[in-house]
Structures are given as C-alpha cells and as structure tokens.
Amino acid sequence: MGSTSEVGRRDLVKRAMALGLISVPTIGALSACASGGDDDNDGGAKGEKTEKNPLGVDKNAPLELLIFDGGFGTQYVEDDVAAYEKKYAKVKTGSTVKIQSKVQGRMAAGDPPDVINNSGDEAMDVPALIGQGQLADMTPLLNAPSIDDPSKTVADTLRPGTVEMGQYGDEKCYRMNIAYSVFGIWYSQKMLDDHGWEYPTTWDDMLAVCAEAKKEGIAGWTYTGVYPQYLGFSMLPMIGKVGGAEVLDAIDNLEPNAWKHDSVKSVLEAHYELHAKGYILKGSGGWKHTESQTKWTEGKALFIPNGSWVENESKDTTPPDFQMTVSPSPNLDGSDAMPFETIWAQAGEPYIVPAKAKNVNGGLEFLRHMLTKKSAAGFSKLVSSLACVEGSEEGLQFGTGLTSAIGLMDAAGENFLNPRFPDWYPTTWREHVVFVLGDMMKGDASPGEAVNKIQQIADDAAKDDSIAKYKH
What are the angstrom distances between the C-alpha of 424 and each of 28, 137, 327, 420? Predict the structure, then answer.
C-alpha cells in the first residue's frame, strides 16, 4: 500500500456524522408488527442475567454466524469468535457472497442462523423482514453495558447516526452497522500527478480530464455494470449538491415527480456524456465490481465510483505506489446548491439477528463483543475502513485510501448527505432503479427515458401497500 499517516482525535467526524446521519424515519405502513418487546426478545435460548452476563446468554447454547464474504472478507470476526467462545459456547461460522440465496429458505422455515451479516448484492430486504416480524429488536443490546466501560451503555459508545441507520419508523433498532463508509469517485493520485492532471471540481473539468486521458489511451471511467448500484455513489450525492438535500429527501419520501427534478435530469445527462463521448472503458457494462476494480488498479481507467471498502477489496491488485485517493463528485457548475466538499457517508455493513433464531441473546452478545474498541480497531487495521465505535481509529495508521476518506469528512464540515432511498426501499433500488441507470450508461436509454422510467418505478412503489413507507 502507499504512504500512511497518523490518525488522531476526530471531533469533526463526530459532528459531521451526527449532521449527516441522524434522520429518523416515521413509518407509513407495515404489513405486520415487528417482533420483540421494549427490553427483551421472546424466542431462543436464555440464561440467567448477571452483571457479567447482562443479556442473559445460555452458556450451553451454540451460536451460528453467517458472514458476507465481500470487500471486508471474513477474517475480522475471528477474534470476536474466540472471545465469545471463552465465555460461552462454540460458534459455527459460515460465509457466502449470496446472503439471500443462502438463508431466505431458512428464515421462512424458522431455522435461521443466529447472526447474519446482511450485506452485498443479495442482502435481504430489511423493511420486508421487519414487516414479517422476522428480525429481533436490538434495544437490549443498545441498553446493555459496554464491555470497555460498564458505566456506559453500548449505545453510548457508538458514533452518532449508527443507531438511527438501524431504525425504521420507531425507536426499535433492527440492524447494527459496524463500518462507516465514505462514497465518492476513486483514483490514483500518482496517475494524475504523472500526467499533470488535477482532480476535477466541476463536470466540465471532468470531461476535459477524460478527453486528455483518451489521448493517452486511458479511459476516463470504469464501473461495474453487473452491480450498477455503484453508480449511485457518484450520482446521488451529485444530485444533492446540485439541487440541495431537499431533492434527495423528496426522492426518499416517494414524492410525485421527485425524480423529474431539474437536478436529477442534469446529473444523469452529465454522466451520460461519459458514454456519449467514449470516455468509459469498453466492457465496463458487463463487469462485476472486482473486474472493474482490477482494470482500474491496472491503470486502464482514471476514475471509478465506489465506497471506502475498495482499498481492502482491491489490495491484491493495487501497485504499492498507486496512492489510492477518493474525492467528492464534481459540481455541475457554480450555481449548485451545495459546495464541492459535500459528500455522502454513512454507517453500513449491517448485522441482523433473526427473531426466530435459536440463540437470539447469544447473537446480541456476539455483537456486543464486536462493538468494543479493540474489536473495532482490529477491524479498521485489517480492512482499511472506519468502524462505528467512537474513537476506535485513534492512533492507527492507514493506507492512502482511508486517509483520504477521513480527510474528506474533515473537509465536508456540515455538508453531509444521507440518501435513504437505497436502504428504505432496497428491492426497488437494487432490482429496478439501478438497472435503468446501468442501461443509460451503456447507451441503451437516454437520460430523459431513464428519468421517466425511474419515476414510474418510484410511483409504483408509492402505490404498493405491501411496501413499508418512511418519511424524513
């Protein structure tokens, strides 16, 4: 990896996260009440609650854990498994890249794993699971004493916004995020420096840099056409920058014609120019994320929209002097509502505990072990990502990618965006909207056609009573 830098106290991160993340939705409709009481879940093995066992774990009950084997891998949980097994029973650990395929049948049959890292392209639809009463309430975990400092609750130790990202319309928490991700446009600073180019702060500058790169036989952009939701890491924050956060709020709220706002049209037209001018690496539309990332680290393309896990996920193909860097999406022009430094960053990499798990309390206890500073710092060191435990990054050294991501959060000040459409309506977003964006980037739909199609998709979701609705 490239050069590293010392990371100290991050008061600005805390403030910015609070501003960017705390947006608690109010529920519109749920098809059924979620399982779990105010301070206890009903099912699963139970033990005696004591000072050392505040969640009442049955010490003889085994625990089953299923991890998403994606950008963060699975090694980061090994210390937590060892720590849990010292106090309680054996942990059976499994991994997959296809969470839904692996566990959907088991969820329906009432025989799910006790803890699930519900991430990746096949992550299960959390609002749907809540509506079916399939998820345990994590309030007991949040109210439990922290392992680091029993005078504090677990909730007290988390970065602002972490709990809120697990809430869907009430004060219960249905998922626990362990990572804090920064989204943006990633590139090799060395490649830019070698050619005398600067990162573009406006879209005209972006097109100009891409034109220069094309002359050198380098594509301006690449992306994953197989998982086109990655395009949102550039498009959504740019929409908010151009039109203001209220445009993203209107999209989140499923308001009529929200996707037809001028800022949405402008941003889609801007990205379409990359295709129209031949600045996208040929083949991108058919590649998986790892394939596009490899082409990028090989220097075949300048820019790629991605999240801060990319540094770890592509480490095996990244040259030592690559100087991986992330910057915000460019502004459209000087009339934009928000400054260039505006970014999208949020708590992510969610864990859930099924309500029908055999060891619900054990699942919550396992997460309590994950939410210690030691575990969080180990996670950060291993996978080059910030964790959601407050202060866990202090004193650590990171690669250039995460260092630049932290710098973005500092520079953003109060200019943070947190679009909720992708996690409030995950099926609508992941299975419908993003493929329209992907078609547009391949030239199979014009920006105008894409806007109309996406608006119809959003309208259909708004009318569908089986989909839970949320509002800012």
Answer: 12, 17, 26, 6
What span, in angstroms and rounded, lies between the C-alpha atoms of 448 and 453?
Answer: 9
CB atoms within 10 A of CB 379: 26
Cβ burial of 52 (10 Å; 0-12, 13-18, 19+) is exposed
Predicted confidence (pLDDT) per residue in 360-405, tens digit: 999 999 999 999 999 999 999 999 889 999 999 989 999 999 999 9
- Model pLDDT for residues 156-188, shown as the tens digit of each residue: 999 888 999 999 878 899 999 999 999 999 999
| H-helix or E-strand spanning residue 346 | strand 343-352
Token pair of 30, please? 């749920």
Q: Which token pair is 190?
A: 């060395």
CA-CA distance, 325 to 3, in Å (whole number)? 11
* β partners of residue 185: 305, 327
Task: State the residue range of the domain holding 204.
Answer: 182-344+420-471
Residue with tokens 């991986």: 324
Q: Are 221 and 228 in contact (CB under 8 A)?
A: no
Query: Both tokens of residue 469?
Result: 């609705």
Main-chain phi, psi angles of 389, to 5 degrees: -90, 125
Strands 386-387 and 176-188: antiparallel
Residue ranges of the alpha helices (H) in 277-341?
A: 289-297, 310-313
Give the whole-angstrom CA distance, residue 432 versus residue 229. 10
How many whole angstroms from its chain centre is CA 185? 15
Of 10, 58, 82, 36, nearest to 175 (Cα)? 36
Residue with tokens 């505990």: 353
- Alpha carbons 44 and 114: distance in angstroms, whole number: 9
Query: Per the structure, how many domains does the chain have?
Result: 2
CATH number of the domain bearing residue 328: 3.40.190.10
Domain annotation covers residue 18: no
Q: Can you tell me the distance from the alpha carbon of 241 to that of 343, in angstroms, rounded to the nearest whole number?
A: 9
Residues in the chain, pLDDT under 50: 1-38
91 vs 65, 84, 155, 379, 466, CA distance in Å? 7, 8, 25, 19, 36
> Which amino acid appears at position 472 of this protein?
H
Whole-prediction pTM: 0.83
Q: What are phi and psi of 406, to 5 degrees?
A: -65, -40
Same domain, yes or no: 295 and 220: yes
